[in-house]
Design brief:
By secondary structure, the protein is α+β, with helices and mostly antiparallel strands. The chain is 20% helix and 40% strand. The strands form 2 sheets. Strands 1, 2, 3, 4, 6, 7 and 9 form a 7-stranded mixed sheet that branches. Strands 5-8 form a two-stranded antiparallel sheet. A hairpin with an 8-residue loop joins strand 2 and strand 3. The N and C termini lie far apart (37 Å).
């Protein structure tokens, strides 16, 4: 049985930093990760990513580029990247315990979701070419 696409997340890159959130609830409660969430019925991964960033952080994002498709058991997560966003970060306290801009070399000091370092590296690689 093929994995089912269940969620989307976004690496929001600002010059030398990426925006991370600390999850406020399960399944990744207490871990630092990219913002994002589950797809709604009939929603594309890109639409989910845009909606989730607006809901979790109050930001509007543009020009998302697919970075990586990650598989966790029978579920898949589509990760996007962008450098284009507007608005003021206003986190949803039910979803986001904390947020911060992080340089890639700082990831090792944080308790993160599996594979986050590789995804962040992929985001910086794709934007180095643009």
């Amino acid at each position: 049985m093929a994995p089912t696409l269940l969620a989307a997340s976004v690496a929001i890159v600002r010059q030398h930093d990426v925006l991370l959130i600390e999850r406020a609830r399960a399944p990744s409660q207490g871990l630092w990760t990219l913002p994002g969430g589950r797809l709604e019925v009939g929603e594309t991964a890109e639409a989910c990513a845009i909606r989730e960033i607006k809901e979790e952080l109050g930001l509007t994002i543009f020009g998302v580029k697919p970075l990586r498709l990650m598989t966790h058991g029978q579920f898949q997560l589509q990760v996007f990247g962008t450098q284009v966003f507007e608005g003021e970060i206003m986190p949803d306290a039910a979803e986001v315990r904390a947020w911060r801009w992080v340089r890639p070399h700082q990831l090792s000091a944080l308790k993160t979701t599996p594979g986050l370092g590789e995804v962040v590296q992929a985001a910086f690689r794709i934007f180095d070419r643009t």
